[in-house]
Design a protein that fits this description.
The complex is a heterodimer of chains A (337) and B (95).
Chain A (H helix, E strand, L loop, with lengths): L17 H7 L7 H4 L46 H24 L8 H11 L2 H18 L3 H28 L5 H12 L1 H14 L4 H32 L2 H5 L1 H24 L1 H30 L3 H18 L3 H6 L1
Chain B lengths: L3 H4 E7 L4 H11 L4 E5 L2 E7 L1 E5 H8 L12 E5 L1 E4 L3 E5 L4
Antiparallel strand pairs in B: 1-3, 1-5, 2-3, 4-7, 6-7
Classes of the chains: A mainly alpha (337), B alpha+beta (95).
Amino acid sequence: MQVDIKTTSVTQLRNTFSNVARRLGGDKPASRYQEATFDLQSTANFHYRPLWQPELALYDVLRTQIEMKDWYAFRDPRQYYYGTYTIARARQQEVMEKNIDFVQKRGLLRDLSEVERTALIFTLVPLRHVEWGANLNNCYITAYGYGAAITQATMFHAMDRLGLAQYLSRIGLLLDGNSGDSLAHGKALWLNHAVWQNLRCLVERLMVTKDWFELYVAQNLVLDGLLHPLIFTHYERRVSAEHGPALSLLTEFMTNWFNESARWVDSTIKTAAVESPANETLLCGWIANYRKACNEALASYASAVFSQDADTVLAQIDAVFETRVAKLGLKTAQKAL
Amino acid sequence: MNDATQNAVFIAFQTNDDTRPIIEAIGNDNPNAQITRYPAMVKIDAPGRLVVRRASIEELIGREYDLRELHVNLISLSGNIDESDDEFVLHWNKN
C-alpha cells in the first residue's frame, strides 16, 4: 500500500487583535509584548468619580503635568510583559542563589573581622529601606500613572526593588550569621544615625510627591542614577580591592539590573521629551532640582563611606550622570544644570 | 560553480513566536532574500550569500541574543557556514 503524505495549509484569518492592528497600520503578526501591552488601560464606562478625588476620573491623564498624545508611546525596549519578565528574573535569581550559597559555604563574609563586618552593615543594610521606598514609589506610579505601557513596566520595576531590598537583607544575614541583628541595627541606623538622615529625608519627600511622572524622574532617573553607581560600582570596587570579590558576587544582580533598567528609564524620558517642548522644560526642571537635592542628600553618607575621597567619587558619578542626561536629548537641561 | 541556482543558499525555520523577529531581521539585512511561508515553516532563499546579524535581532527583541539560539528553531540550511559572535553567514566556498 502506498501512503501519500499531503500537507494542508490553514491560514489564519487575522494575525492579531484589531486594536493592535490599528497601531501597526494593518493586520500584521504582532509580538506578544505588543499584544500584552497596547490599549490595556481601561478608558470607558466609569460611572462614578473617586470619592477621594472627585475632580478627576478614576484613571486620569491629568495626574501628571506631562502631556502625551499617545500614552502607549512609552514602549519598553526590553519588551517585558509578564512572561518575559518572570523568565528573565527567575534566571537571574538562580544565579544569585548560587552566589549566595558560595559565599555562605565558605564563610566569605562571616569570617571578616568585626570592624569590617560593622562597616559593611553600616553601608549596605540601611539601603534596604531606600529600596523599599523605591518599591513604594513605583507602586504609586503604577497606581496613578496612565497607560499600560508605562504602568506595567513600573510594576515590574516595583517588584525588582523589593528583590533588591531582599538581596541587601540577605547580605546582612550573611554578615550576622543569620541572627537578624544586622537588620535591626540597620533599621536603627536608618532612623537615628546622623549620616543617614539626609538620604532618609529625601526618600520620604519622594513618598509624598504627587505628580507621578515627577516621581518617576526623581526616583528612577536621578536618585537611582546617583546612588546605585555610588554603592554598586564605586563601593563594591573598593571592598573587592581590600577583601576580595565576596561582595561582588552578592551585588552582581544589582549591577546588571541597573544597566538593564537604565535603558528603559532613558527611553521613557526620551519619549516624553520629544513629545513637546513643554514636556522637555518640565523634565529639565525636575532633573535639575532633584540632581541638586540628591547630591546634597548623598554628601554626608558618601563622606562616611569614602572619607576623604567622597567628593572625588561623587563628582565622578555626577559627571557620568550628566553625560547620560545629555544623551536623552534634553537640550535645555544642559543649560539648566 | 557559476550558475546562479547553484550558488543559492537557504535557511529554514519553524514558524513561531521566537523566529518571527529572526526572520524579520534576516529580511531587513538581505534585500535579495526571498521569504516563502509554508505550513509551519518559513524558508528564506538568497542568491550567493545570506547573513544573520546578532545586532539586528537584538534590536527587535530588546534583549541580548546569542546566535547559537538559532538552532533551537532551525529546520534546515544549505551552504557553508561562517559563524562568529556577531554574524552567521551562509555562502558557498569557491574551490
